[in-house]
């Protein structure tokens, strides 16, 4: 009888251990999921802020690149809205805003955007300018790709943030942004989409593409 009781006790202990391990694993999984959600949320918010800041800059540069007349009421209003938005104006002035984002952090080393002449502003948004379509789309897409790494879900979340920030910028600045903003947004999303597509490819697909490339070279 004692042997049976002893074996039953061992069995109960074994079951308890298994149960405790399951609870530990479950807790670890829940913690991991929470951390992942927090990470993706942070990435999303960073992408939103970057998008709003960059589009606000485009609006400001677009206005600064032409001599304003009193008759140009919409441009005057947009300019005043930017000046009255402390965080945006601080960013354009070269100061660091929330998240450590600044003109310097994106590699810009020129004079503050708020101090540019019309000709200087026009040069910055030209085809080869620092804030032209090509260089800006590469810069913004590189920012979100580096932020998300090779995590597809994080990258998708960053893409959502870029889109949300763009839409919020549209609302902030009168419902319509400069044409250069739409061109830049299209190219930025295209780069991000291609990165996501590349990450989703299976090893077999990659090997097939590499094989086709080798045959073409031969």
Would you write up a description of this structure?
The chain is 75% helix and 0% strand. Helix 1 crosses helix 2, helix 1 crosses helix 4 and helix 1 runs antiparallel to helix 5. By secondary structure, it is mainly alpha-helical. The model has no long low-confidence stretch (mean pLDDT 78). It has eight helices and no strands. It has one domain.
Keyword list:
218 residues, mainly alpha, 8 helices, 75% helix, 0% strand
Radius of gyration: 26 Å
How is the quaternary structure best described?
Answer: single chain
Integer average pLDDT: 78
Percent of residues in β-strands: under 5%
State the shape: globular
Q: Helical region count?
A: 8
The ordered string of helix (H) and strand (E) elements is HHHHHHHH
Fraction of residues in helix: over 70%
Contiguous runs where pLDDT drops below 50 for at least 5 residues: none
Termini separation comes to 81 Å
* Main sheet record: none
Backbone structural class: mainly alpha
